[in-house]
Design goal:
The complex is a heterodimer of chains A (157) and B (296). By secondary structure, chain A is mostly beta strands. Chain A has one helix at 2-16; strands at 42-52, 57-62, 65-71, 76-84, 90-97, 117-123, 129-135, 141-148. Chain A starts with a helix and ends in a 9-residue tail after the last strand. Chain B has two domains: 23-174, Nitrogenase molybdenum iron protein domain (Rossmann fold, 3-Layer(aba) Sandwich), CATH 3.40.50; 181-295, Nitrogenase molybdenum iron protein domain (Rossmann fold, 3-Layer(aba) Sandwich). Classes of the chains: A mainly beta (157), B alpha/beta (296).
Amino acid sequence: MVAVFLLAGWPVYRLTRPAASVVTANSSPVAATTTDSPETKSAPLELEAVFAPAPADFQLKNLDRTALAGRGPQARFTGRWTTAVPPEGVDLVVQAHWSTVTAGSSNAAAPAANPAAAQVTVRFPDGRKVEKSFWAGENGTVDEVFTVPGEPAAATP
Amino acid sequence: MMHPFSRTFFAVLAAGLGGVGLASAAPLKVASLSTVLSDVARNVGGDKIQVEELVKGGVDPHEFQPSPSDVQLVADANLVLVSGKGMEGYLSKLEEGTDPKKFVNVGNKVGNSLKLKDDGKTIEDPHWWHSVANVKKATDVVRDALVAAAPADKDALTANAVAYQGKLDELDQAIKLKVAELARDKRKLVTSHDAFQYFARDYGFKIYPIEGVSTAEEPSTRKVAELLTTIKKEGVKSVFFENLQNPKVITQITKETGATVGGELYADGLGAPGSDATTYIGMLRHNANTIVDALK
């Protein structure tokens, strides 16, 4: 039972402990730049994606553009993404796959599978920060939407 | 004194007869004043209930008035599902003719209301089903009402509700991913009447309705003129009509603004048989796909 709790809690510990160092993906993260609309100026956003355990692959997408992407065995990825952020905000689609990890098991007698999780953090040039955690579904994937607010009042302090 | 064997024999016999009685019991009669609630009830109740739809797919609930045969269906029903939040203006008259305790005002129990200004008055927006989260709550309300009426079926009804809520979670995620194909500053929705505020709140849209909350209203010339200005100023690409509305005003707007007709949305309930909105899940998928594909 203790082992089960330790296994289940490991991703949470990994995602919440202070980072000793930042490991950047071997392949340079893909950075996209958008064209400013008349009312909206572009901002260089710092993106960070942390996984527990390391994913097979992942990407953060906005519309048809890839903002950040990478593959395991690294579990932490960073990159700069320059984009227009209107007052309505922007949506990042978070897609990640784990090849050997599933969220649960249909066999109650089997050992509990190690749950997989991702945490995405977006930092604005003015110091604002927004972040969100995602848990893998039963098929070992995350396919969700993270809304980055455009209004400073809606951001996480 | 009865022999222990006899006691056991009669107990088994009684249990067997009871089982026969349950198996052959008529399904619970559930009358519904909402096409969405009819669908929820079918998903939760399965073969344990018989749904009598007073308001059928493709019928405008704002305009619906119960007929004498509808009143009889309500009288015969064990439960009556009500959309609530002021949608059924005839409700008090319907309650007069039968036991008011069997009416389940689902929308009011769901809560989570949006307030709207309509014709100078503040009202609750009755179109609560355009929020998937609200329909998940409605599923709990319907399950509880059915279990209270048929406690013997509690396990089956509970399992059905859990399974349906899982499908609603998948629907919500699918809509979020679909809507993410559209930049948030392009999420501007011009519709025939003001029915999509819950959808707008959940998925980040701004609504510009031509009419008010009820379809019974006609848009004023002034309101149409204001809307024309807004559509041009905001650069709205497409406008939408509804399955129950006359698209005449929409056509006028597209001519004067250059916006295209984005397609038909289901606002006030499920579509008629043969449409792709004969279920709640089908209706919301249709609406989300139609909106996003037109505004992209």
